Amino acid sequence: MGRYVVRRLLQAIPVLLGTTFLIFTLVYWLPGDPIQALAGDRAVDPVFRATMREMFHLDEPLVVQYGYYIQGILTGDFGTTFRGLPVSTIFEGKFQITLNLAMTALVIEAIVGIGLGLIAALRRGKAADTAILAFTLLLVSIPTLVSGFVLQLVLGLQLKTSTGIDFFPVAGTSEGWRSYLLPGIVLAGTSIAYLTRLTRTSLMETLRADYVRTAVAKGMPRRRVLGRHALRNSLIPLVTYLGADLGTLMSGAVITETIFNLNGIGRQLVDSVYLSENSVVVGIVTVLVLIFIAANLIVDLLYAVLDPRIRYE
Amino acid sequence: MKNPSVDTHLLPADSGTIGTEPLLAVDNLHVEFSTRQGVARAVNGVSYALNAGETLAVLGESGSGKSVTAQAIMGILDMPPARIPKGEIRFRGTDLLQLSEAQRSQIRGQQIAMIFQDALSALNPVFTVGWQIAEMFRVHKGMSKKAAYAKAVELMDRVRIPAAKQRVNDYPHQFSGGMRQRIMIAMSIALDPEVLIADEPTTALDVTVQAQIMELLAELQRESNMGLILITHDLGVVADVADKIAVMYGGRIVENAPVHDIYSNAAHPYTKGLLESIPRVDMKGQELYAIKGLPPNLLDMPTGCAFHPRCPFRQDNCVTDVPALHEISGTRSSACHYWREVLDGTAG
Hints:
The complex is a heterodimer. Chain A is mostly helical. Chain A has helices at residues 2-29, 34-39, 46-55, 62-74, 87-91, 94-122, 127-141, 144-163, 181-207, 210-217, 222-251, 254-259, 265-274, 278-306.
């Protein structure tokens, strides 16, 4: 097990190098001059421009620039923005906000998605099943942009004005974990739909398994047959999906963060692309890749917990 | 070991038989499945009886209804799509089909238990074998975890799994095929059931292991005087252990007989075909006999006798008239219009 983890972490190194190089190259090719971007519409002093280009190695070939960047990363230095701020200062607090948001969405997704999926599988072909399937179709059809504003309006504002219940803050992070509820629901929306359908299929398949029939033949109560014998076996594909989805949720939070005014990493990423702050863009992507790799490793280790046939040497 | 939560008036505490009532009696059972293509009639009026200490072999090819009948006895058919429009399954005189689901789950596993064909898929892959055996005691008898595991080890010893104590925490995939089937057996006999149904218990095993498993089943049956229903398509397995045989075809019983009678002289052309298709050393080099044609389509059963399209002795009335189960003697019957001729060897 320990050796397996070490091997997986070593395998992460080429993945990390590859992805950072790719994103570094893409940012390098972005049109526009980052130094000009600092000055807006006004002309830039040629001396200033020359100094900046020298300082940020902008005249060096791509590979050399990348080399400087990796050298910095290895010493824990994410570099400096063209405006003179250390990139790590810009990260401060923002990853935490996006991580909070993504985790909230993941919890909501897991509870609602698995719950609805279980109901649908157990009521296969009945009204509840059809209703849930129709609901998932609705979920994937509504863009985040729409669901975000509608929920903000209905649950955040109208609920408050009509009943006085002020439970869902509509913007910012001042209300602690409750601040993340509405954006969490919005962000989880599409994933809930997929997870519901995946749960439904997985459980229906498990319910047809021979060992479930054995459990019934042993005279086990229905609750135990479902909750113990079937559920654990059908959880395996769901864990895979949830693990991979954490990365998707973190990188896909841009619109949600904008609507709910959350100062997270998604918004920072978009801003930095506009401002050609290459070091920030590459830094954010690097950390996201790290989170992706960690989530996948945890998923693989969870397999072994759920399914004893899987063992890592 | 009767479970106290089963209504005792439903199940008279008698040993073996109540008057002339056998331990388990299937009476005119019909099972059908609704499918997209129509209604598949899997079981069409099957009757058989089983006494304590007796072994009944139910013989037939895939789709003959032998497994479906067993699953109806256990109450593990998926309903729907399955339906039981007619028939009775009496256990100690009580029709199981009239009981509530809660009452039936008290009988399942405790009084009537079942062993399945492929133990690898029939055992849950994510729980240890000890857990799966101990579960019987924990759920049905309310035993503590420790006591239940001790019982599990005891049972694994009883079905002769080597080093049971060390292996109780192993998972099914860590055992060989034969050992897995032993675990399946240990689980099924955990609560001393009165009826044990073994659905092709040796089909997935190799021949030497098959013999060991059959021997084990026979021994366990002698010790506890269980009634054993052995479902198989393997005539070789049957000869050693069965007392009587019911041959099924197209959802009906076509022949009932004590085991020795059937081997010496079959009273139904289908049974005859089955016996002739066993490979024999003295026929080496000659073509192996096979019953011509295919098993009947359950959605579209042949008219008259279901076997007539494949029968070498077919006469005109076989196509139109469904043969009744003719009584030949007290213990034998055959559902063939021409059973006399088949017995004499003068048919065809």
